[in-house]
Design a protein that fits this description.
Length: 726
């Protein structure tokens, strides 16, 4: 018996191993093993094939152990990971490493359970007080965990040991699940009466689920239109024919509130997977899925690999979100696209939901790949918020007159406001006024941001930080100017203008402690706070009925990014943030401050008009050969040495262009320095390939890079369908 094994390494090759007799019964395709590899004596590998013969003429090594009792990579998952490895130009081993993430050494956690012995011996009268009490408690309570018995009664471990020795009590083991959401108080919810639009959507989706055929639906519904309710009812349908469901949400939307809505409907049949789980928690959730105790999985990006069998329904909420794309480490996959591929292979139905669909998905409804479903209005005919645009060229202060007054009015009337700015810290730009020196990170080509709370300058791309200087490090001038606006400065300005207001801030800096995220949102939800200041973290999903004003301090941060998706992102972000206003009984108002009031992504956000935005944007994509008309591949070249990096990028581009010859099907741009030309000490150049001929483009890139022999210290990364090219 011989095993084909792959390892979680950037080596595109399977390795053959032999199996010692003692392990022969335990091996099968889809389990993990421990095997010697290279200089390492013990490496985790994945069995991807088993054969009876071995034709090579070298000495094979034995595997050392089989890790899994059950198969952890089903044939479906194997198929999916192979597709990913090919499409995203990675190895199968690296993809499996990402798909089966829990650590092999993770154990089931067993709790010790104390129970009364079946037959009580005669001499039970000779018990001490403490012993008698212990017997009494266990008699009353029935079986109970040992640590609870000790904690609740104060009876010592020694007393219990004696009772076990006497044969009066027994201790047994029972598997306990580490459930991160165990402490929720869950009240059951039932579905409300659907609106006609919801009914239509649910009925089309249900038909597809019951037919057990692949169909993709784009569910385009404005914020608060009841998309989640459609998901819940579609899942009910899947359960009724004994099928499982997978729900993907962006990592920052995976809050307890989101999970709770699903748990309220489906109880313990829901499992949750995300990157903040401990290894133990993740292991236990996997066990519950494998044992079919959980038939609905909610999770972020990597939950697309959840080992559900009989998959009937997949849902990708906020499908336009770029956080579905993984960059580091490989595989650089897009979870939404992987979900579509998984649905197709497993004959399942998939719903892609969004208030602002990605251009790709909306385009797919035009060319007939996806079915279009729409929820055009809010529940209860609540109006969409009034949006107003303020031209900041006319204004001198951080808050325009209009926004200032709107905030004051909310505070006076006891309503709440959200103030949004897509940049954290106090001031992102620090310059000496005497010599003009701009403070930059020594490791990155990025200006340092001043943080008020600890009076330090910080880099937002690496972990570099330093105390804020008293004087210029070049000319010792003492006139240092802190310009630009971050969320800290906004908060401080609000405190100055409205000393009576209660203000809280939510961004990466205030949410690093576990639970702080929740604490901030709760204090706002319960009305302890009047104003919530935050970055895109507050833009998504949250439902605050008392918020009647959303202010966008500056919508220009994203628009000025040199990336072909920057307009799409700005439109979508503004629409999402605006959607936080007026979700309760009171109507909402949105005020957007900008220096480019005429820009189409801002104008379209003003009128909540997705179609208007799409029509403009799609034309520009077509003219410039961008997705959805082509696929992009970004080839990133990194090195700590600038000249080496530049030369390697030139060589790569020449190789690509030579191999491509006069083929017009592939456009090759570059090399050019990346917008973020140096990060964490690495210089960065890139080459961009555009083509609608995927196979050709992939072949060209692989062949060309394979033929190059670049010096040590140069990394080449091929990023298929990149989320950004900064
Ligand atoms: P979305 O996911 O599109 O933002 P939700 O599903 O969260 O919208 O719905 C917004 C609010 O309306 C939620 O509080 C939800 O419980 C409620 N809701 C959804 N559908 C209905 C319905 N048919 N009748 C009454 N309330 C509903
Ligand atoms: Zn840095």
């Amino acid at each position: 018996m011989f095993l084909d094994i792959v390892f979680n390494l950037p080596i595109n090759k399977t390795f053959t191993y032999s199996v010692p007799d003692r392990l022969k019964d335990r091996v099968s395709i889809g389990k993990r093993v421990i095997a010697p590899f290279g200089r390492k004596r013990q490496t985790v590998g994945y069995i991807v094939g088993i054969s009876k013969e071995f034709k090579g003429n070298y000495q094979l090594k034995d595997i050392i152990d089989v890790i899994d009792e059950q198969v952890v990579i089903s044939p479906e998952l194997m198929h999916l990971t192979k597709w990913i490895a090919t499409y995203y130009l990675t190895t199968l081993g690296e993809t499996l490493g990402c798909a089966v993430p829990y650590k092999p050494q993770t154990q089931t956690r067993n709790v010790k359970i104390v129970s009364l012995s079946d037959s009580l011996p005669e001499d039970q009268l000779k018990l001490s007080m403490a012993q008698a009490k212990a017997i009494q408690v266990v008699t009353d309570a029935g079986d109970l965990p040992l640590n609870e018995l000790i904690a609740d009664t104060g009876i010592s471990r020694a007393v219990i040991n004696t009772l076990v020795k006497k044969g009066l009590l027994t201790i047994s083991f029972k598997q306990e699940y580490r459930n991160p959401y165990k402490h929720y108080t869950i009240s059951r919810s039932i579905s409300p009466i659907s609106t006609p639009d919801q009914t239509k959507a649910v009925s089309e989706i249900s038909k597809s689920v019951c037919a057990e055929k692949f169909n993709a639906f784009l569910l385009h519904g404005v914020t608060g239109s009841g998309k989640t309710e459609v998901y819940l009812q579609a899942i009910e349908q899947a359960i009724s024919i004994n099928k499982t469901s997978l729900v993907l949400v962006p990592e920052i939307s995976l809050t307890p509130q989101t999970v709770e809505r699903f748990v309220q409907r489906f109880g313990q049949r829901v499992a949750v997977l995300h990157s903040r789980l401990s290894d133990g928690e993740r292991y236990d959730e996997w066990q519950r899925i494998l044992k079919k105790e959980a038939v609905i999985v909610i999770g972020a990006r990597s939950a697309v690999f959840a080992p559900l069998e009989r998959l009937g329904l997949l849902i990708v909420d906020e499908e336009h979100e770029s956080s579905y794309k993984q960059f580091d480490p490989a595989p650089r996959y897009h979870a939404r696209d992987v979900a579509v591929v998984r649905a197709k292979h497993e004959n399942a139905t998939i719903i892609l939901g969004s208030a602002t669909p990605s251009l790709e998905s909306f385009y797919n409804t035009h060319v007939g790949k996806y079915h279009y479903l729409s929820l055009p209005s809010r529940i209860d005919e609540r109006p969409m918020p009034q949006v107003e645009i303020i031209d900041m060229k006319e204004e001198k202060e951080m808050f325009s007159n209009r926004l200032h007054q709107a905030i004051a009015q909310r505070i006076k009337s006891g309503q709440q406001a959200i103030i949004f700015l897509n940049r954290r810290g106090f001031a992102p730009f620090i310059q000496c006024r005497s010599c003009g020196l701009i403070m930059k990170c020594p490791n990155c080509e990025i200006t340092l941001t001043y943080h008020l709370t600890d009076k330090r300058l910080k880099c937002h791309y690496c972990d570099y930080h330093q105390p804020a200087p008293q004087s210029c490090p070049e000319c010792y001038g003492e006139d240092i100017r802190y310009s630009g606006i971050g969320t800290q400065k906004v908060t401080e300005e609000l405190h100055r203008l409205f000393p009576e207001a209660r203000i809280t801030r939510m961004d990466v800096d205030t949410t690093s402690a576990k639970g702080s995220h929740e604490q901030i949102l709760n204090s706002f939800r319960t009305g302890e706070m009047d104003i919530l200041v935050g970055t895109q973290m507050i833009a998504k999903g949250h439902d605050f009925p008392n918020v009647t004003l959303v202010g966008v301090v500056s919508s220009d941060v994203g628009l000025n990014m040199p990336d072909f998706r920057s307009c799409e992102r700005t439109f979508s972000l503004l629409t999402q943030v605006a959607g936080r206003a007026g979700r309760g009984q009171l109507p909402g108002e949105v005020i957007i401050q900008t220096h480019s009031p005429q820009h189409y992504s801002i104008q379209a956000a003003l009128s909540h008009n997705y179609q208007e935005f799409y029509d403009q944007e799609i034309e520009f994509r077509q003219q410039l050969h961008y997705p959805p008309f082509t696929h992009l591949m970004n080839i990133l070249i990194r090195s700590k040495d600038h000249d080496q990096c530049y030369q390697a990028s030139m060589l790569t581009a020449v190789q690509l262009k030579n191999n491509n010859g006069h083929n017009d099907d592939i456009i090759i741009l570059g090399p050019a320095a990346c917008s973020l030309s140096r990060i964490k000490g690495y210089y960065r150049y890139h080459i961009l390939l555009k083509s609608s001929k995927l196979q050709q483009m992939r072949k060209l890139a692989i062949k060309s890079i394979h033929e190059l022999s670049l010096p040590n210290g140069v990394d080449i990364i091929m990023d298929m369908d990149p989320a950004d090219m900064l």
